Every structure is written in C-alpha cells, then in structure tokens.
Amino acid sequence: MELMIHGKYINQGEDLSEVLKVRQEIFSAAQDEKDLEAINILVSLIADAKDEGTVVGCGRLNFDMEAFRFSIDYLGIKEEFRHNGYGEFALRTLVDKVNQCGADKVFVEKDLIRTEEAASFFEKMFFTQCEEDERFLSAKIDSFHTCCH
Q1: 99-134 as b/e: b if 16+ CB within 10 A
Q2: How sure is the predictor about 2, in pLDDT bands with cuts at 50, 70 and 90?
Q3: Exposed end of the chain (fewer CB within 10 Å): N or C?
Q4: Side-chain half-sphere of 19: how many Cα atoms within 13 Å?
C-alpha cells in the first residue's frame, strides 16, 4: 500500500493538542504566546481519505504585524521519518500560505536553528542571511516555485 503525504493547517483558535504533542516530541517545547496568532501544520502519512494517518512532523507560521513579517519556527520531522522529503513538504506548504497572503519573503530566526542538519536544510531551501535584520534568515517566495499540494 502506497502512503500519501498530507498537510493539515491548524488555524488560530483550533485545537492544538496534536501539534503540541509532536512539538514536544521533536523540540521538547510547549505551547507559547505565539500560538494564539499562529497557523500550524501537521504533516501525516495517510493511506486514503478515511485514514487518520501517522503524524510525522509539524511546523508553525507566525505573523508580525508591525514588521509585516511571516516567520516559520518549530518546523520538524520525527527522527525516524527524516530524509524522505517531508520537511521540504511542510516548509513549502507553509510558504504557500505566505504566498497566498501576498508577502514576497519568509523568515526564520537564526537562534532557532540549533543543529547543523537544520542549518543545512534551510540553506538548501534558499534561505540566506537577511539584509534587513541580522537575527533572521530569509528566502524570497518566488524561489520556492510553490505549487498546489
């Protein structure tokens, strides 16, 4: 049986329990004040439309109104599912949401990139040092060639 990758947005005000469980497992991090305004994504492997699937990862999209900046954090895939393209899928799905909002860039806080593997991943995914704010890496939305998911 072939499994499909599935991304599910968890919008503001919706139940975050599944996201928080995965975030705790991957990052040892709990809910914080950003979750009130953020959009999260759960990444699952599913067999068909009736299948609940196996959750393999998560990510969060934050929006800073003052700076008109969309930033991604807590983007991670459970260790046993890494190196299968699921992280790229999660990132591209969040970037697609940023694109729908009309922004031309997406950001990642450098302090949140804590491993060489994560740094290499974001570099591979077009993120470079942000010229406007040294605390961030940024990528132009058009560099992702976003498509339907």
Answers
A1: beeebebbbbebeebeeeeeeebbeebbbeebeeee
A2: confident
A3: N
A4: 26
Whether the predicted model's global pTM rises above the 0.85 cut? yes
Q: Phi/psi of residue 38, each to 5°?
A: -90, 165
What are the chain's domains?
Answer: 4-144 (3.40.630.30)
Query: Can you list the alpha helix ranges (DSSP code H) found in the chain?
Result: 17-27, 86-100, 116-124
Average pLDDT of span 44-67:
88
Using CA atoms, how far residue 53 sits from 7, 25, 104, 137, 139, in Å, is 11, 17, 33, 33, 31
Handedness of CA 53, 54, 60, 61 (dihedral sign): negative
Largest CA distance in the chain: 48
Pull the structure tokens for residue 82.
Answer: 């890494």
Q: State residue 84's pLDDT score.
A: 94
Mean pLDDT within 86-95: 95
Contact 34, 62 (CB under 8 A): yes
Q: What are phi and psi of 145, to 5 degrees?
A: 50, 55
Beta-bridge mates of residue 80: none
